[in-house]
Amino acid sequence: MPRSRPDPELLAEARETTERVARTFAIACRLLPAGVREDVYLLYLAFRGLDDLVDQRDPAAGARLEAVEAWTRGAPGSSQESRIFEQVATRRALPREAVRDFCAGMRDDLAARPIETEADLDRYCYRVAGTVGLVMAGVLGTRRAVERQAVALGMAMQRTNILRDIDEDLAEGRVYLARETLDRLGSAAPGARELLLRDQIARADALYEEGAAGVPALVHGRRAVAAAAAMYREILRQIEREGYGREPGRAVVPRRRRFAIAARRAIVL
Predict the structure, then answer these.
(1) pLDDT tens digit string along 141-186?
(2) Which domains does the chain have, with CATH numbers?
(3) Which of 8, 39, 215, 223 has the least CB density, counted as fewest CB within 10 Å?
């Protein structure tokens, strides 16, 4: 029985959203086989859609999360996001428990659950990003069990996002760093966070190393995943080059450097 094809209009929306909002991720997606790339675009649209609803405190966020949670328990899709998961699951091995855990992370954000310890932060990073790593491993296929490595890579990218966006989050009254670590290593304010960033960068680098060990086991997309990881990890190096947050603002890796990193990873693999 032939696999179902994605809806062309929804796929066009998913591709446009990925290329507009996630430019680094979009570069890596170009290295994926066409059919796999289409499903990755769709999944990005679903995950991003839920994340945006939660970030914006949209009144519909709870119901849309509930629809996806119902799908993970076997109900038919009843929202755009749940229908995307439902459709992609006809073509790929999606781990429903991971999707359910992602929704739990979104609910943590809605509830503004405080992050007191590094264990709390690890749990949060697992829920909102390690789960995405598990889903992507299901889409790409694996030759051996790589769940731990897939989770580690997702968590590394989330920790990188947190460090990149410290000032933006602070401006909105959000703190995604562990309170115990802030108390131990000092403020997250510009010019006063070098010790904090050194500690957090080391934690993220360790996760990248762990995640990289699973890349050779992927059936599809080894070059794409390696390129995405390398480009994201370069954000950490950019933070270091800029003096560990000496000045406020987001660390941005120039587009030319991102392309060069992606190209190198593609050649290596």
Answers:
(1) 999 999 999 999 999 999 999 999 999 999 999 999 999 999 999 8
(2) 8-268 (1.10.600.10)
(3) 8
